[in-house]
Specification:
Elements: E1 2-4, E2 7-13, E3 19-26, E4 31-34, E5 39-53, E6 56-61, E7 65-68, E8 74-78, E9 84-91, H1 93-105, E10 113-115, E11 119-120, H2 123-137, H3 142-156, E12 160-163, H4 173-187, H5 195-202, H6 206-217, H7 221-238, H8 243-250, H9 255-266, H10 270-274
Antiparallel strand pairs: 1-2, 2-3, 3-9, 4-8, 5-6, 5-7, 5-8, 5-9, 7-11, 10-12
Helix pairs in contact: 2-3, 4-5, 4-6, 4-7, 5-6, 7-8, 7-9
Length: 279
């Protein structure tokens, strides 16, 4: 456990599966706007957790469930002075898609399910998630962990909407620009690139490029590039790299710069993340 003033965090990371979880109390910490490349399912245990997601202000109080789709931009902070306690699990899309495919279409449905609401009340889902968190943080076996995770995902299945691959919506020119900018940022995340060069790479003006990207992904290109760097640093740390190596190879100026932004995006330090694998 590590503290920031009176905030505290516990972190779980599976070594052989795309599963990570956090149990935290935050009174002072504020998340910088970000998204995950995973599904994220959480339960607020105490207090009020406030955040902005999908263009609206949200609040999760005790017993409510949070469900973020991959790439859902959001922030987060205490909704009142006492702060809040919550648990959240991040699960790889392939794992979630497989469980939902079994639940929704007898194994025949393909694609990634999308959750309609980022926060909601559902007693069955909340109880299933709480049982899963107890297993993750209190020493359950790997078999118990997988069973309870599957049970939690199945309990959430009624909240799933259309699948991402099956939607038939024509992509606009602005969406194509945003997607091209995203690909450029992901390819060159560790390099310095200015707004003009980025706009030229996708063949439009700086203003049109910036507006299209923010509309599609809910954050500025600079924030997305930093997020790519942080995801790369997480991967390097999972693979056993040092903090100094992760900072340099992911494009940060130094280790302190990585540490500062890592905590603002993920709520923990990179050192704690590196030590959070199963023991």
């Amino acid at each position: 456990m590590e503290t920031k003033r009176d905030d505290w965090v516990r972190y779980f990371r599976a070594e052989n599966q795309p599963i990570e979880a956090m149990h935290a109390y935050f009174r002072t910490h504020r998340y910088h706007p970000h998204s995950h490349d995973t599904y994220s399912f959480g339960v607020t245990e105490r207090g009020v957790q406030a955040f902005r997601c999908r263009g609206a202000e949200r609040a999760s109080v005790s017993g409510m469930v949070i469900a973020f789709n991959p790439d859902d931009p959001h922030d987060g902070h205490a909704g009142d002075a006492p702060g809040f306690v919550y648990r959240i699990v991040h699960v790889g899309p392939a794992f979630v898609a497989r469980i939902f495919g079994d639940a929704l279409q007898g194994g025949s449905r393909q694609g990634l399910p999308l959750f309609r609401d980022p926060v909601f009340s559902d007693a069955r889902a909340e109880q299933a998630l709480s049982r899963m968190f107890a297993c993750l943080f209190d020493g359950g076996t790997e078999l118990e962990r997988d069973e309870r995770l599957a049970d939690a995902i199945l309990a959430l299945s009624q909240r799933a909407g259309v699948t991402r691959e099956l939607r038939t919506v024509r992509e606009s020119s602005a969406a194509r620009v945003a997607r091209a900018v995203r690909a450029e940022l992901e390819d060159r995340f560790a390099s310095d690139i200015d707004l003009e060069a980025l706009a030229q790479s996708v063949g439009c003006s700086r203003y049109a490029m910036y507006r299209a990207f923010v509309a599609r992904y809910g954050m500025a290109p600079s924030d997305y590039q930093r997020q790519c760097r942080l995801r790369a640093a997480r991967r390097l740390l999972r693979e056993g790299g040092s903090l100094a190596q992760a900072a340099v190879q992911s494009g940060f100026a130094d280790q302190s710069h990585l540490t500062r932004w890592f905590a603002r995006y993920f709520g923990i330090t990179p050192g704690m993340y590196r030590r959070s694998g199963e023991r």
